[in-house]
Amino acid sequence: MHLRCPGVLHLRVLWLAILLAVTTTVPSFAGRLVTDMAGRSVEVPDKITRVGTIGPVPVLNSFVFAIGEAGSIANNLPPNLGGPRWRFQYVVAPGLASRPVIQTGQGPNIEGVIEASPDVVLTMDRATIDQLARTHVPALYLSWQKPDDVKSVMHLLGELFGRHDAADAYSKYFDQTMKRVASRADGLRDDQRPRVLYANYRSLTQPHKIAEWWIAKAGGRSVTDDGRIGEAFNFSIEQILAWDPEVIIVTTENDISNVYGDARLANVSAVKTKRVFAIPMGVHVWGNRTVEQPLTVLWAAKLFHPDLFADVAIEDEVRNFYSNFFKVDLSRDDAETILTGRAGASK
Q1: What does the pLDDT read at residue 346?
Q2: pLDDT tens column, 18-30
Q3: What string of H, E and C letters represents the secondary structure of 88-137?
Q4: Mean pLDDT of the chain
Q5: Structural domains in the chain, sorted by start
Q6: CA distances from 338 to 57, 58, 171, 299, 345 (A)
Q7: CA angle at residue 41 from 40 to 43, to 5 degrees?
Q8: What are the backbone dihedrals phi and psi of residue 42, each rounded to the nearest 5 degrees, phi first?
Q9: 10: which residues sit within 8 A by CB, 6+ positions away?
Q10: Best CA proximity match to 341, nearest among 198, 176, 185
């Protein structure tokens, strides 16, 4: 039998031990674990400087804006979200325009992801996480099912970016704004709460279930609030006539004139009293899920109950929010453009 030199064997064992130690300890220095909203432990770099957003990009971007990290977004908006409708995304993050597109439709563009080279990708789509696995780019799953989930998302991003202060500030603002409105609206009787329809006039749908929440919080009664599980609610002109809403909020400014011009709706209370309005549009549509949701409630409360909220200077509220959370100073014209829904009007 051939025996190896004990000294050589000792050196080989020592070298193997060192190699194993290095390969098992390097990750602890290179990264850390973050638990996403699917309960997955995801290893991410210690410092996040570039983040990708795939899925409902404007919503995801708005979270990153509010945490104070707009400059970290590594991708542009998808091609189907171009044009002036999304202008305030670029007001908050001008650099987006020069970034690569990393999704087509609702799925990731792998070549774009590689070009953007994000430290981590944020998504609300589990299939995207599976598709990104082969790029070795970590992906965090975010979820927004209940209104308060926005605070959970912000705290997760606070952990990701090391911006716990910003997450805490947002949560405090959210809660204080809800309490501020509730202190006046919660005591209203049903007959003091206007019947409200939030609608995409062209498709005759109430497009997002969360509208049932913000309408109620603002002191209104949503005519489409039927306890449904699904997002959208479809209806007919005949149903609008039966509901006879006292306030109609449409999804684009252009549809205000369309509603007023629809002879079938001439006898609807909101039309007769000229109470048809467009939902505001900032970095996202305020009627949908957006980090601007507290502003939605405050705006709607003043709209439904102008006397009760006469002291609320909503333009100032918008400008302060953008300054405090998005780090952008809006002009009064900018705030008016947001509040009138003009940013979301088609050209």
Answers
A1: 54
A2: 333 333 333 333 6
A3: HHHHHCHHHHHCCCCEECCEECHHHHHHHCCCEEEECCHHHHHHHHHHCC
A4: 90
A5: 31-166 (3.40.50.1980), 187-344 (3.40.50.1980)
A6: 19, 15, 23, 11, 11
A7: 130
A8: -120, 130
A9: none
A10: 198
Cα 256 to Cα 248: distance, rounded to the nearest angstrom: 9
pLDDT at 135: 87
Contact yes or no for 196/246 (Cβ under 8 A): yes
Instruction: Please give the pLDDT value at position 30.
Output: 63
Residue 200 has pLDDT above 50, yes or no: yes
User: How confident is the model over 232-251, as pLDDT tens digits?
Assistant: 899 999 999 999 999 999 99
Q: Is the pLDDT of residue 317 over 70?
A: yes
CA pair distance 306, 309, nearest whole angstrom: 5
What SS3 class is residue 35?
A: strand
Percent of the chain residues topping a pLDDT of 90:
81
As given in the structure block, the two tokens for residue 152 are: 């959970």
- 310, 309, 299: which is closest to 338 by C-alpha? 299
Contact 160, 48 (CB under 8 A): yes
162 to 45, 67, 166, 177: CA distances (angstroms)? 12, 10, 9, 25
Tokens of 25: 């300890």
For residue 16, the SS3 value is helix
44 three-state secondary structure: strand
Q: How confident is residue 228, by pLDDT bands cut at 50, 70 and 90?
A: confident
- Answer for the pair 233, 224: CB distance below 8 angstroms, yes or no: yes
The DSSP annotation for 245-275 comes to -SEEEESSTHHHHHHHT-GGGTTSHHHHTT-
Three-point CA angle 197, 203, 208, nearest 5°? 55
Longest C-alpha distance within the chain, in Å? 105
